[in-house]
Amino acid sequence: MNLKLLLLAALGVICLSLSGCVVPVDGYGYRESQRVRPPRTAVTPRPEPIPGALVVVDAVRRLACVPDGTALDLGGVARMWSADRAAAIVRTLSDDPSILLEIGDDMVAVRGDHLVAVSAGDSDDGARAVVLRDGHALAASSWSALLWSNDDGNPAHHLIDPATGAPADPGSAVVIASDAAEADALSTAMAVRPSLVSRLPTTCAMVHGAQGERHTAAWEAVAV
To answer: What is the residue extent of each domain of the chain?
Structure first.
């Protein structure tokens, strides 16, 4: 894997997702995979706004700089970046006219159009279908995907609002894009801040938040 390309691509789509909606959560106890250790911490940190430029990339010298005491985890962006490249390999190895690559709750239409179910909000009530076009990816993000309580009794989840430094208000988003990493970053950003849906009208997205369900015209074009 070309780590430089992955890093630049990941940071690029994170910037595209409107600076800072994809941020660290280790302070709230989410430091390792759930398979290694359930997330929690003894004392919930006092929330503080998160600087917009936590990571500085020097493409010429191939360096990524992060603040002291922090580590870089590209998370779902790296997963979907890899999924796009896996899809490209599958296309060369198979002539099957209908191939759908699933990555957890996300997916890439390797070849052909696919009808996929999308939940309405954080439940299966009112689930609907959308058409995932050939070569496109679908990524979903929700505050309820990973919930826990810290030892001091305070609840937490894995989506942090950079404006406050605290877990974001309940929200979820589904995004379809031609670039899988971009779909992942945008879905996370919109789950943290559902109001972004009105600022990105050309993005194919559906969000749920305090104002209920909203979606873009591009989403309506693929909804069934």
So the answer is: 3-222
